[in-house]
Design goal:
The structure is a homodimer. Chain A is mainly alpha-helical. The first copy, chain A, has helices at about 15-40, 45-55, 65-70, 75-85, 110-130, 135-150; strands at about 60, 90-95, 100-105. The first copy, chain A, has a three-stranded antiparallel sheet. In chain A, strand 2 (about 90-95) and strand 3 form a beta hairpin. At the A-B interface, helix 1, helix 5 and helix 6 of A face helix 1, helix 5 and helix 6 of B. The structure holds a DNA duplex.
DNA sequence: CGGGCACACTTGAGAGTTCAACCAATGCAG
DNA sequence: CTGCATTGGTTGAACTCTCAAGTGTGCCCG
């Protein structure tokens, strides 16, 4: 169903320029990170799964929690985890406290892969973003994205 | 082929926090924009195609130019344009000056769709980004993304 | 002028994602 | 307790994207 009757508050020219630069910049950032990770057979989504699993003491996390942290739909996560399971990067184990639950757990192989990929990934993040911008702008980026994340949902 | 022997220059804790906020923030921004555009049967990629076509006097543009502007692979653009053509949003016409070339041209319907969707899209951009951040941080975002885009390719 | 390389775009198959059911366990209301 | 909405996760089909290969045109160099 299409929304109707909006009073258009257009963006100023300067705002439009910034917005387009945002689209180009993020496009480039994600493209380069994906390209770099491809050498390890991963994409950014999978890499983030590894990172969040490894953040936890036992390298395991419930599917739904993981889905929230990596901002993927449950369905997508199920499929992705299945693929990664087939590659021996992680396993699924039953959740002890809730019989509906499933936990994804990093295998040793999966952890080793993360350890191998991480330095290259970090280097990419530096090369494409951190090292090419003014430190104070980078700080501002953090403030800005913090505000975006905390803004109320308002579906 | 995997890259080898990297000296890891890790990110500081503050930098990591900013980086994760960047991932979350952009994730949210794109998710909301896509959700809003879905009511018009579009996603952000298709919407950008409409915008760039409408930027030109005749509402037409060569495929490869368009591909560059929207940062999509030629292959992807071919598929997307085919789909949009099937929906009567645009047409393909032969390029007069180069027989290899193809131009995508907005139909009246396609232009009408853009006109209808645009105000809602702009409103989304405001709601999810422009209106929730400090103006000076938004300016900084522009500066920062400008630097990212202009940074040398260094494959 | 003609051989060959580069460019513009398309194609099709495989890989990944989305969307709408679906099943099973939980938990709360009466 | 029992009924029923909710939550957690999966499934499969339809759709989209990627990657490598293919077609046809332009252009340069001898």
């Amino acid at each position: 169903m299409r929304p109707t009757s909006i009073k258009p508050r257009w963006l100023s020219t300067e705002q439009q320029v910034i917005w387009r630069q945002f689209l180009s910049g993020t496009g480039r950032i994600f493209a380069e990170l994906d390209a770099e990770l491809r050498s390890f057979g991963l994409d950014l989504g999978e890499y983030e799964i590894l990172v969040h699993l490894s953040d936890n003491p036992d390298h395991e996390l419930r599917m739904s929690e993981l889905a929230d942290k990596v901002r993927q739909s449950r369905s997508r996560l199920t499929h992705t985890v299945s693929r990664m399971e087939a590659k021996n990067i992680l396993t699924r184990i039953a959740c002890p406290s809730d019989r509906r639950g499933v936990m994804a757990k990093l295998t040793d192989e999966g952890y080793a892969l993360l350890v191998e990929a991480a330095p290259h990934h970090v280097e990419s993040v530096r090369r494409v973003l951190v090292d090419v911008v003014e430190p104070e702008d980078f700080i501002a980026l953090g403030r800005l994205m913090g505000a975006v994340v905390q803004a109320p949902e308002q579906s």
